[in-house]
Amino acid sequence: MRIAVAGATGTVGRHVVDIARLRGHEVVGLSRATGQNVETGEGLDAALTGVDAVVDVTSVGSISTARSVEFFTAASEALLAAEIRRRVPHHVALSIVGIDVVPHGYYAGKLAQERVVTDAVVPHSILRATQFHEFAGQLLSQATVGPFALVPTALLRPVAARDVAAAIVTIAEGPPIGRARDLRGPQDETLLGMSRRLLRAEQARRLAIGVSLPGDYWRGLRSGVLRGTADSDEGTVTFDEWLALGGS
User: Fold this and answer.
1) Considering only Cβ atoms within 10 Å of each terminal Cβ, which end of the chain, N or C, has fewer?
2) SS3 83
3) pTM across the whole model
């Protein structure tokens, strides 16, 4: 197969590229570095020529509702329009478990993405996954005050990005299925516990302190609704195993 990957250098995308190639597929990475802009559509038509499936694992570095909705709407519309012109038969999008319960910030953007994909004429598959193991490190990089790392209270069921990528490639290899079974990690975690273990593994001197943040977004994280349900598929790599592997 010839598989195009939007977001090919990102947290999940780099694993999608690696796994797809290991399985013998030809991979076309879509990025500004190679002349494609998913927001404007620039360069997409040429890149999607002869493609059997497009995998969209793009992300945006913002939790602003307006910016997230703007990005995911524009990117999905641009990709799907190019797919129609190039007659791509399968669009695969990665989304997030529980976003319809917490439709705020970044999650509002993912809901907008799902609506665009579902309403399009291109046959599609959507996989919702829980937060990645990398989530703890992403928050730690933004919440340092002197020797302290302020960690929002959250109950999660994190999954390895590589487990997500493997599921995405498997979906791309098959026919469009609409909404796939959700994917979550093998065990529950607290964000504070993950952060403290990550800091120890990195031999960092910062002390992680839990904080309860206001707002619907953070209340949603505290509630545990983003963990998925018992009928979800489950990844195999725990957070501690992921740390032991060097966080990859």
Assistant:
1) C
2) helix
3) 0.92
